[in-house]
Amino acid sequence: MAAAFIVFLSGSPLYKKVKPGGSPLVRVIQVIFAAIRKRKAVAPEDPSLLWLDKAAVVKNGEADYPSPPNLWKLATVHRVEELKSFLRLLPVWAAGILLVTANSHSNSFNTQQARTMDRHLSSSFQIPPASMAFFGIVTVIIGLALYERLFVPFARRFTRNSAGITYLQRMGVGLLFNILSTVVAALVEKKRRTVAENHNLVDNPKAIVPISVFWLVPQHSLHGMTEVFMVVGQLEFLYDQSPESMRSIALGLFWIANSAGNYLGTFMVSLIHQYTGHKNNWLPDRNLNKGKLDYYYWLVTGIQAVNFVYFVICSWCYSYKPLEEDSEATEDGADRNGKIELTTAEKV
């Protein structure tokens, strides 16, 4: 850690130091507050979030030079468009919450499954149950390399897109991979439990079911492909489509989705424990052979299918933001002479 800290400090002369330009949250609140104050004003004919445009409508005395206008009463068009761009990406972002919900307990259940399966590589060595996640990680590493080196150049020939496919298309493919992952997980669990029943091992929670643990590899690999497409695609989408002044907030949304998805996943498991009863519990604590883990996977698959339809609708309605040309010289909206850039606002 000490060596890393020294290396970190040694690069400080190369850092590009930018003066603080104010909180982006304040900018958002100012635009909304100005729009509310001018809710009765006549806005331009723009079908996208029309009411926010009212924040940039200039009324008498609001833009008298040389005194700068009150940004709580009059917002620049640039700030209004920033907020509109940010709000437009939220429905697409929300699709990532249920993705995390579907995967929030997969590692725990996969480890439980692996513990009951034949993990021998030789007569004296067994794979630790939790180490099955290795296959998902390897898939991500290899998948990312192949995606950039092979898939992008190949897709570029047909799409003429420098990234191969759009961010939304990449995210959609990732959602499909995750649906396929849970379908495979349900089928494998059904197979594992059937083998346990055929060998009269259902009532023995410590018994090793004679089925190879490598049956779990496909679902781990498919989950890895989900991260290659959906997770990376979502990060790129949030960074690219968010306004320049709000990119830190947009990337924070990624972790908010992770948190919300994990909470929802825990809530869903609690509901399953509560409503599937004590004897027929889908997710028993001690004996997985008596459970219905495959039912849980099918439930998650259904939720993901609904989420995929929602994502497709949001993607269909989404319009990518145009290339930004920052009309404000600094983050707080003032140019170097201390004047506010209102030339576009006056045209509203």
Automatic annotation (TrEMBL):
Coiled coil location: none
GO MF annotation terms: transmembrane transporter activity
Keywords, comma-separated and alphabetical: Membrane, Transmembrane, Transmembrane helix
Subcellular location: Membrane
TM segment ranges: 86-104, 125-147, 167-188, 249-275, 295-318
GO terms for cellular component: membrane
Composition skew (Basic and acidic residues), residue ranges: 333-348
Pfam families for the chain: PTR2 (PF00854)
Location of the region described as Disordered in the Swiss-Prot/TrEMBL record: 328-348
Domain of life, source organism: Eukaryota
PANTHER family: OLIGOPEPTIDE TRANSPORTER-RELATED (PTHR11654)
Record-given protein name: NPF family transporter
Organism encoding this protein: Salix udensis
Lineage: Eukaryota, Viridiplantae, Streptophyta, Embryophyta, Tracheophyta
